[in-house]
C-alpha cells in the first residue's frame, strides 16, 4: 500500500542488504524504471494507494540513500514522525466531526425542538469533545518530545493507539447523532469515518502500538 505512487517521480524502497537483523538499506527508485509495476487500489478511504511490484529491477550504486545497512535507524524516525503526523490529522478530523455534529444538533428538529436540546445528543457531543481534546493533548506532548530530541517511544505509541481509537469513537457518535444522512455520499460524515479507518492502520495500528507500550512498561 504505497500512497500516491501513481503520481510520484521517485519511490523510496526499503531492502534487506545483509544477513544481520538490522541490515536494511534505503534506495531511491525512479517510478518509471523498467520492471516497476503499479496498480491503483480501491480502498475504504478512497485515498489513492497503489500496489507496487518489482520484476528484475536493477539500480546503480548511486541510488543508495544514506549508509548501507543503516536504513533501519532512518525508518524508525520516519515511523515515529509519521505516526504523530497521523495523530495530528486524526485530531483535526475529530474536531471537524465534532463541529459539524454540534451545528447539526442545533438545526435538526424532532418533536418540535432541536435535537441538541435532548440530553442523549448533548452527552454524545460532550463525549466527542472530551475525546478530541484528549487527542490533541497527547499528540502535542509526543510531538514536542520528538521535536526536542527527547526519548519518546512510549509517548508516540500511546498517542497513536489512543488517538486512533478516540477518532473512531468520535465518528461513531457523529453517525449516531446525524442518523441516516451521515451515511450518504452527499454528506461529509461518511468521509471522515472512512478516513478514520485508514488513518488507524497507517504507521502501525492500535494493537501494534499497545504492544509497544506494554513492552516499554515492562510487560
From TrEMBL:
<dbReference type="Pfam" id="PF00441">
    <property type="entry name" value="Acyl-CoA_dh_1"/>
</dbReference>
<keyword id="KW-0560">Oxidoreductase</keyword>
<dbReference type="InterPro" id="IPR009100">
    <property type="entry name" value="AcylCoA_DH/oxidase_NM_dom_sf"/>
</dbReference>
<dbReference type="InterPro" id="IPR009075">
    <property type="entry name" value="AcylCo_DH/oxidase_C"/>
</dbReference>
<feature type="domain" description="Acyl-CoA dehydrogenase/oxidase C-terminal">
    <location>
        <begin position="69"/>
        <end position="216"/>
    </location>
</feature>
<dbReference type="InterPro" id="IPR046373">
    <property type="entry name" value="Acyl-CoA_Oxase/DH_mid-dom_sf"/>
</dbReference>
<protein>
    <recommendedName>
        <fullName>Acyl-CoA dehydrogenase/oxidase C-terminal domain-containing protein</fullName>
    </recommendedName>
</protein>
<keyword id="KW-0274">FAD</keyword>
<dbReference type="GO" id="GO:0003995">
    <property type="term" value="F:acyl-CoA dehydrogenase activity"/>
</dbReference>
<dbReference type="InterPro" id="IPR036250">
    <property type="entry name" value="AcylCo_DH-like_C"/>
</dbReference>
<keyword id="KW-0285">Flavoprotein</keyword>
<comment type="similarity">
    <text>Belongs to the acyl-CoA dehydrogenase family.</text>
</comment>
Amino acid at each position: 500500500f504505497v500512497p500516491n505512487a501513481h503520481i510520484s517521480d521517485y519511490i523510496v524502497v526499503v531492502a534487506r542488504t545483509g544477513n544481520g537483523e538490522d541490515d536494511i538499506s534505503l534506495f531511491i527508485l525512479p517510478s518509471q524504471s523498467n520492471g516497476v509495476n503499479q496498480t491503483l487500489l480501491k480502498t475504504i478511504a478512497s485515498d489513492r494507494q497503489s500496489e507496487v511490484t518489482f520484476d528484475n529491477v536493477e539500480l546503480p550504486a548511486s541510488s543508495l540513500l544514506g549508509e548501507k545497512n543503516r536504513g533501519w535507524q532512518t525508518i524508525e524516525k520516519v515511523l515515529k514522525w509519521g505516526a504523530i503526523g497521523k495523530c495530528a490529522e486524526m485530531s483535526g478530523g475529530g474536531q471537524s466531526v465534532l463541529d459539524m455534529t454540534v451545528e447539526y444538533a442545533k438545526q435538526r428538529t424532532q418533536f418540535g425542538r432541536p435535537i441538541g436540546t435532548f440530553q442523549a445528543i448533548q452527552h454524545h457531543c460532550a463525549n466527542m469533545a472530551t475525546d478530541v481534546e484528549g487527542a490533541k493533548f497527547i499528540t502535542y506532548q509526543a510531538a514536542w518530545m520528538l521535536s526536542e530530541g527527547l526519548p519518546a517511544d512510549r509517548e508516540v505509541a500511546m498517542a497513536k493507539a489512543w488517538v486512533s481509537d478516540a477518532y473512531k469513537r468520535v465518528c461513531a457518535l457523529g453517525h449516531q447523532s446525524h442518523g441516516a444522512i451521515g451515511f450518504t455520499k452527499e454528506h461529509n460524515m461518511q468521509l471522515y469515518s472512512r478516513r478514520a479507518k485508514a488513518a488507524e492502520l497507517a504507521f502501525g495500528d492500535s494493537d501494534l502500538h499497545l504492544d509497544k507500550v506494554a513492552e516499554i512498561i515492562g510487560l
